[in-house]
Amino acid sequence: MTFREDGNYNATLRIRLEACDMVIFMDVSTWAALRGLVSRRLKHGYGQDQATGIYNRLHWGVLTYAATYRRRMRPRVLAKIDQYAGHAEVVFLRDRRHASPTPIADPITPKMIAPPSR
Predict the structure, then answer these.
(1) Phi, psi at residue 55, to the nearest 5°?
(2) CA distance 99 to 110
(3) What DSSP string describes 35-88?
(4) Fewest CB atoms within 10 Å of the CB: 26, 64, 90, 117?
(5) Is the pTM higher than 0.90?
């Protein structure tokens, strides 16, 4: 069975890492993350997307989380990956251009198996 989950919801990360056979970690720069947030806001506007039901909220808390993710959350997530997903293939994508809607099925997706420098 194949399933994909998005996000690093800390409360369930251990369970998901223990069950997975591959981890794809979008390891983009802080500027790329912030640019992506603003770009999505400009492209999709504000409020709930009628097709997906996802809320597009851009507020100070979201910006602060993205701006501090690499310093505060990334080390914690990498530690959990090391601790609970040792059996899994770990792929780090450093650039959004390397991601596709189906990165697992994309044979040309660049892979970096060793964790990047912390």
Answers:
(1) -85, 135
(2) 9
(3) HHHHHHHHHH-SEE-TTT--EE---HHHHHHHHHHHHHTHHHHHHHHHHH-TTS
(4) 117
(5) no
